[in-house]
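Let us practice reading a record.
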Amino acid sequence: MPYLTYLDFGNNPLNDILPLSIGNLSTSLQYLYGYNCDLKGSIPNEIGNLTSLIKLSLYGNELTGSIPASVVNLQKLQGLSLTQTIISGSIPGSHCELQNLNALVLSQNLITAAIAGCVGNITALRYLCINANRLTSSIPASIWLQKDLLVLSLSSNVLSGSLPQEIGNLKVAIFINISVNRFLGSIPSTIGDLQTLSNLTLAHNTLQGSIT
């Protein structure tokens, strides 16, 4: 099927694995949806052969292992959704090379280690959702430079450190949730500069001081 550009088999009880042959699908394929299918096993490295992919959505499965490094080959990718799987390991720094990535949604997995510092360098990023994982360390300084970021969801991890005044740089943010972590120190006064913000959740941390 050399002309196939759209493939959606979501919401079917397939109860199977993603075959290695998925990499043999049309290089014209732009949209691949396989959500809520009871898929098991790991994501084949061969998925990196689908170099025209714009959106890849495999959420709501039982996928295991780590995100394949070959994802770096998907230079046209705008949306990656792997929510509610059992993906583990770290977020490869190679993701930072996906400069067209608009939405990175990896919520409710078993992802560990720190957030790659270069994630904030993806200038197209609008949605960064890595909540309910096992992320450690602090939020990279580069994320606070994302002036076009709309949604930042990092709740229910093991993130620590203080919240910098630079949080006020997220001028167009509408949703920020960093609850259920280990942040300490005071609440930055620059949060008051976020005039478009409609949802701010800082609950269940160790923040102190006054609310200004």
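A brief commentary: The first strand starts at residue 6 and ends at 8.
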